[in-house]
Amino acid sequence: MSKYKITTYCFILLVLVFTLTACSQDPVFNLYEGKTLDIAVVGEPPEVKEDQVTFTEISFDEMTPEELTFYDAVFIRENNLSKAAEDQFADVYSVSTIPFYFIGTDNFVPFTEKGLEYDTTSEWTAGVSYAVGVLISHEDDTLKHWGFGLHNDINNDEHIKEMYSRIFMSIDELNTAQNTNDNPTNEVTIEKELNKDNTEADLEDNNETNEKVDTSINETIEEEEASTSVKEKYIRQLGYTKKEAEELEATDSSTYALKKVENDRWELWDNLLNEIYGVLEEQLSAEEMVELREEQRNWITYRDDRALEASLKYKGGTQEHLEYVAVLANLTEERCYELVTNYMK
Predict the structure, then answer these.
(1) Looking at CB atoms within 10 Å, which of 66, 114, 131, 306 has the fewest?
(2) How many domains are contained in the chain?
(3) CB neighbour list of residue 323: distance below 8 Å, 6 or more residues apart
């Protein structure tokens, strides 16, 4: 064999070895590096890489508002999900000021809604979230929820630990947001700045004042135009979301695949509903928002009752959860259109 052929074979072998080595390297995951977290766990505490996260094992009997004030979040592990879906705990989740994370499932509905049972079709399979977190917003009584999947849909210890790191980051973000809302410092600072601006304005001459009046008029016109465009924007967004929802397709004809489509469709409309509600909080007066909040609470009760009534036709069967979520999605879509059409300016 010639030296040229030997050199060529060696080069190809080196390239193959380098390629296989590069492909087999584990990805570098980001760890949670925030503040200390104290998390209650119903079940066995998980193994994680973060030292600043401490777990305390609790029972279902200890899941009371008084006991949970000492923690940043609650984890409910896989072998306790059936118990966690019992009706008496739905009220616990609805009044909690800290998030609950259900590990090993992508479906939070059996836990937050009464009259539904947890079944194995909600357990993890590739392509869906491995854990789901929920927290009721006590400002508008809407349910916030987040899904956490596994890297490349591969279920191993390393990827589960990485998922927990992302959950810790979400808890820290919720804590930061809560502290910001509870801290009046921002309001004081804004008030000082407004007072400062007013004082400086009093010292300006009449010409500058007239210029400011003209500017104010222009700004008012621009705000009215922007307000009008906001409604047009969300009318278009309704169409985009409807098209996106209609394009969702099940991977097969199984109940699980169909349920995932309905879950995804509900999530699309629920996210848009929360966004629309946030815009209305900026547009409507305080009196109008009081009326809308009451109407929204009544609508949530109506939505849940309708979904439960529809699902009971299939009680105990695999279609029960599918029907429940499908009705939630349909009613949430209708509510989005109603809020934009009747309330948005």
Answers:
(1) 66
(2) 2
(3) 307, 310, 311, 313, 314
Which pLDDT does position 337 carry in this prediction? 93
Q: Give pLDDT < 50 ranges for the chain.
A: 22, 24, 184-203, 205-206, 209-210, 212-213, 217, 221, 224-227
Q: What is the DSSP code string of 68-88? A: HTT-SEEEE-GGGHHHHTSHH
Domain that holds residue 305: 192-342
Alpha carbons 329 and 74: distance in angstroms, whole number: 27
Task: Find how far residue 160's CA is from the centre of its chain.
Answer: 19
Confirm if 293 and 273 have CB atoms less than 8 A apart.
no
User: What was the pLDDT predicted at 45?
Assistant: 96
Say yes or no: 127 and 221 in one domain. Answer: no
pLDDT of residue 207: 52
Residue 228: which H helix or E strand, with range? helix 206-246
Looking at the chain, the number of H-run helices and the number of E-run strands are 11, 6
Angle at 314 between CA 309 and CA 317, to 5 degrees: 140
pTM over 0.70: no
Interior/surface letters 192-201, b for 16+ CB within 10 angstroms, e for the rest:
eeeeeeeeee
In a domain, 15, yes or no: no
Report how far residue 142's alpha carbon sits from residue 134's, in angstroms, rounded to the nearest whole number: 10
Contact 311, 325 (CB under 8 A): no
